[in-house]
Here is the input.
Amino acid sequence: DIHAGGIDNAFPHHTNEIAQSESFLGHKWCNHWFHVHHLNDASGKMSKSKGEFLTVSLLEKKGYDPMAYRLFCLQSHYRKNLVFSWENLDNAVIAYNKLIAKIATFKAEGDVDEKAFDDLNARFQKALDGDLNTSVAVTALYDVLKAKCNDATKLALIADFDKVLSLNLLSAAENLRKKQAEEEAANADPVVD
Here is the structure.
């Protein structure tokens, strides 16, 4: 349904790909073509040919959670160039960690408020329907954190949104809760008989 590539592939590469594929298949090949703008650094476009590009392995080697990098990327629209710097990535790490810490405070208690769920979910869907505007979708996620509804509703929305965002929000929050519980247990004074 979707075929993607860099903006530099829109013409002539994708135009030729459409012509070749559709003439071979005899029908429409893809419904949507998605052309992503470039990841830049201070000197311009990052590319393999210039020897300047990021890999998940490099980020992990430097101690970065790939999910924080994903959040960094989602905070920009795919039709805009994204400027990478280690400082910008560090800011995304801080934002991701705060996001996870907030979600970790929610308790899965009570029933989901269907009206609140539908209203907040509509904001997220509107962002995605608006040319896959992930930056507005991330804002909709933050709106859920601040919403005046119960935690069960918030957790249901976060789970639903994360099907698209793929930030591992609930599992990261659960891991944080476990880590905090282990630290509290380790720091508790031993009982003396």
In short: The first helix runs from residue 10 to 25.
